[in-house]
Amino acid sequence: MDVTAILDPLNDAQRDAVTVPAAPCLVLAGAGSGKTRVLVHRISWLLSVEGVTPYGVLAVTFTNKAAHEMRSRIEQMLERPLGGMWVGTFHGLAHRLLRAHWQEAGLPQTFQILDADDQFRFIKRLMRGMEIDEARWPPRQVQWFINHYKDEGVRSAHLERTGDHYQDRMIDIYEAYEQACNRAGLVDFAELLLRALELVRDNESVQQHYHQRFSHVLVDEFQDTNAIQYAWIRLLAGESGNVFVVGDDDQSIYGWRGARIENIQRFSKDYSAARTIRLEQNYRSTGTILTAANALIAHNTGRLGKDLWTAGDEGELIRMYAAYNEQDEASFVLERIREWVEQGNLRAETAILYRSNAQSRVFEEKLMGMGMPYRVYGGLRFFERAEIKDALAYLRLIQNHQDDAAFERIVNVPARGIGDRSLTVIRSLARERSLSMWDACLVALDEKPLAARALNALSAFQSLIRSIAQQIEGLPLYEQVEHMLDGSGLLELHRRDKSEKAESRLENLQELISAARAYEPGEDEVEMSPLDAFLAHAALEAGENQADEWEDCVQLMTMHSAKGLEFPLVFMCGLEEGLFPHQRSIEDQDRLEEERRLCYVGMTRAMQQLYMTYAESRRLHGTEKLSFASRFIKELPLEQIDEVRPVGLTQRNASLSSPAWQDDEPAGFSLGDRVMHGKFGEGVVMNYEGQGSHARVQVHFEYEGSKWLVLAYANLERL
Fold first, then answer.
1. Which of 177, 394, 644, 707 has a Cα-to-Cα distance from 329 of 20 to 30 A?
2. Is the pTM of this model over 0.90?
3. Is 710 helix (H, G, I), strand (E, B) or coil?
4. Which residues are catalytic?
C-alpha cells in the first residue's frame, strides 16, 4: 500500500502517533481529536510499512460496534481481509481466550455466559436456598460485592474474615456463588476477565505463547480500564512490550463502575521508556466551546494536561438560561428545538443531556404534547428484554442441562405448576449433594420428597427440554430457535395475553428468529456449534445494539450515555448544586472531579451551538426545592457566555450578569474546602457570594444539611 495514503489525511501530531517507533506509547487524545483515525492508521502502518503480520496484532476496544468499525476501516484502507488479527472488547477477547484454553482455565468445554440480569437472578435464588435474609443482605448489593472483588482480581478465598458478621456473610455468599457457578459451568462478565487473567498469569506456556504471538498490543479508551483489565494487558504484552494506548484522562467518567483514572496517570511510570503524544486539535466543536471547556477542566488537579484548539470558527457564545422551574426549562429547550427544525435542520441533530434519568420525564411529557418524536437513548435493549431472556434461557438449558440460572428462569415459564416449595426442595437437594438443579430433579423423581403432582410437573418439564433438544438437532440455527419458541409455549403464552405489551413481546420473539437467521459466527467461533456461538454472541452483545430503527427525532440521554457521540445542537440541563454535581459527589474531591469531567464531556459533545440551563426551583422525586446554579457554571469564562434571561436573578441564584458570579473566593475559602462549625460540625463549602464583612458561604453539613452562613459571624475553621 502507498504510505502517503496512510499519512496524508493526518495532522502532524496524528502522524507522530501513527509512525512512532515500536515501544510503549501513550496517546492523550482530546475530545474530537481523531483517536479512532489514529488507531486505524497505526494498525495499517504496522501491517503495510513495518511488516507486522495481522497474527501479531491485538487491538482492544470497549464496544463491539467500535471493534467492528475498526476492523472494517483497516480492511478498507488495506484493500484486503485481516484474518488472524484479534480485534475486540475486553470481554470478547477474554471469552476467545477461554474457549481456546478451556481445559487450562478449569472450565467445561460447553461453559455458558451469565449476563448481569441472569447473574442477579442466580444470586437471588442461591441466597433463598441458603435461607439468607434479603433485607439485611440485598441481592443487588451482593452482586456488586462479588463483581467489585472480581474486578480487583480477588477471589472469595483471598478475603479475610474479620469477625464482622455482615462482611463474613457476604464472603459466605461469594464462596457459595463461586462453587455453584463452577458446578454448573457458568461464567459471569467479571469472571470472564478474572479467569482469563488467571489463565495467562498461572500458565507459563500460555503466557509465553501470547508474548511471542502479540508483537503489538493497542488499547482504545484506556482511561476507562479497571484494575484487572490493565493487569491483563500488562500480562499479555509483557513488561517491555509494544503497548500503544489511546485515552483521555479528562474524559474518565466511569469510576462508579470500577474504571481507574490512575491507570492512565501511572502508565508512564509502569513503562519508563514510554513516549507521550498529545492530540489537541479538535475537529468537532467551535473555538468558543473549546475555550470554555478548557477553562472548566483546568480546575481539576493531577491532570496530564492538554488544551483543545480548533482551526475552525470561534462560533456563537454559549447560551445560559436560568429557568424559573423545570417546566420553564423544558419549554425553553423545546422552543429552541422547534426553531432549529423550522430553519430546515434535523431533529436528530439535537440532544438534551441531563445528569439524572428522572429529569427526562418533563421533557418527554412536553415532547408528546407537541407531537414531536423523540428517543430516550439507552433504553431497554433487545437482548435485555424479559421475553428474549426467557427464550435464550430455554436455548441455554437445551445445550447445557447443568445451567442452573437458565433452569430456574424458565422452569415455570409458562406456568406449569412448579411452585416455590418444589424449587426450595430441589435447591436443598442440589446444595446438600453438590448437584445441579437438573440432576437434583432426577434424584427427587427417584426419592419422591414431593407430592406426585409436583413430581409429574418436573418430569414433564425435563421431558419437554429433552424433546426440543432432539427435534432441533441438525437444523439450521434459525429453525432451532423457531422450533424452541413453538415447543416451549412462549409464543402461545404471549398470544393469550391481551395486554398492550403482549403484541410487542410477540414481535420481539419473532425478531429473535430473524436475528438467528442473520447471525454469522466470527472467526473465533467457527469451532463452536452455531447455537453455542449465538448464545455467546447474545450475552456479549446485550446492551450494545438498539433493536429498533427510529425516525428523525430529538435525542434524550444522560451525560454518561452521551460519551462518544456528537450533535450540532446540545442542551445541558439541570446545572444545579446537588444535581450536577450530584449531591453524593460534593463531599468527595475525587468524585467531584469526576463530575467536572462529566460536565467537560457534555460540553464537548456540541459541534455548533451549546445551551446550558438551570432552574431556580425544581420538583424532582416528588419534592420541590429551591436550587442554586452549579459551581461548574461559575468556573466558565464570562466572556464566552450569553445570558438569555438576565433579569429577575439574585446573587444567590448566581446571575451571570452580576459581577458576583465570578468574584474572587471570600476570605480564603474555596469550593470543596472542608470546614468545622462549632454547632453544626464538619461540612464542605458548596457555594459563596459577596465580599468582605458581607461575604456568605453555603456549607453542606453531614447531619444538618446545607446552610448559608455569614463569614463574619460563623467562626468557621478550615480543616
1. 707
2. no
3. strand
4. 35-36, 220-221, 251, 605
